[in-house]
Amino acid sequence: MNKAWSALEKAPEGSFKSKLHSLGLKLLSRVKPSEIFLKSIPKQLTGVEVVFPSSLNPRLVRRRLRHIALRGTIVHKNYFYGSVTLLPVTSAFAGSEKLLELVSDSSKNRNSPEKDHGNAAAENDSEKETHPPLIMQASEELERLIGDGNDVSKCTLKDISKVFDLNTMDVLKYHQQQN
User: Fold this and answer.
1) Do residues 153 and 175 touch, judged by C-beta distance below 8 A?
2) Where are the compositionally biased (Basic and acidic residues) regions (predicted)?
3) CA dist list (Å): 120 to 92, 107, 109, 123, 127
């Protein structure tokens, strides 16, 4: 990560990498110093030495450190709960990415510009990856159930759900969202 950050820092002025570095610096400047301090504490730490000016009361220094740690814990728990709450939404995005991968032309995946043509190992690894084929299947039974397709009723959707073993409530919700 440090090497990548250094590369961004050394990028020519005005380049995309330079702009990305500037954006990163702006974002980092918004991070509270106490967060940077808390991040610097390794989990394996078994003791800590705190150096402070002799003019300060040791109890006040300890109280301040406890306050920083407690406040950080509360903030991190809130972010954790927020992340857990948003997990279903983010997993839906991951599902849509997977669907896009499955319905995209597999020849595009094999000839992507990201592929390292100079590296034989990378080529062998990409050849080992097999993407399931997209199976398209026309259904005369679905055609019969839909009819002319101009106005699909709830009864029709329920019948389609039964025949194709779909969750009726999900189908109805999706249909409602589309209209």
Assistant:
1) no
2) 107-118
3) 35, 19, 17, 5, 11
The string of DSSP letters for 115-175 reads S-TT-HHHHHHHHH--PPPPP----HHHHHHHTT-SS--HHHHHHHHHHTT--HHHHHHHH
Model-level pTM? Answer: 0.38
**What is the C-alpha to C-alpha distance for residues 164 and 155, in angstroms, rounded to an integer?**
14
Distance CA 117, CA 70 (A): 51
Q: Which residues contact 142 (CB under 8 A, 6 or more apart)?
A: 160, 163, 164
Tokens of 115: 């592929």
**Domain coordinates in residue numbering, the chain:** 46-133, 137-179
Alpha carbon separation from 103 to 4, 82, 92 (Å, rounded):
33, 32, 16
Counting Cα atoms < 13 Å in the Cβ hemisphere of 11 gives: 16
Cα–Cα distance for residue pair 79/173, rounded to 1 Å:
30
Q: Which amino acid is at 173?
A: K
Whole-angstrom Cα distance, residue 107 to residue 105? Answer: 5
pLDDT tens-digit profile, the chain (179 residues): 778 888 888 989 989 988 998 998 888 888 777 777 777 777 787 777 777 888 888 888 888 888 888 888 888 888 888 888 888 777 766 676 666 666 666 545 444 444 444 444 444 454 445 555 566 777 888 888 887 766 778 888 888 888 888 888 888 877 776 66
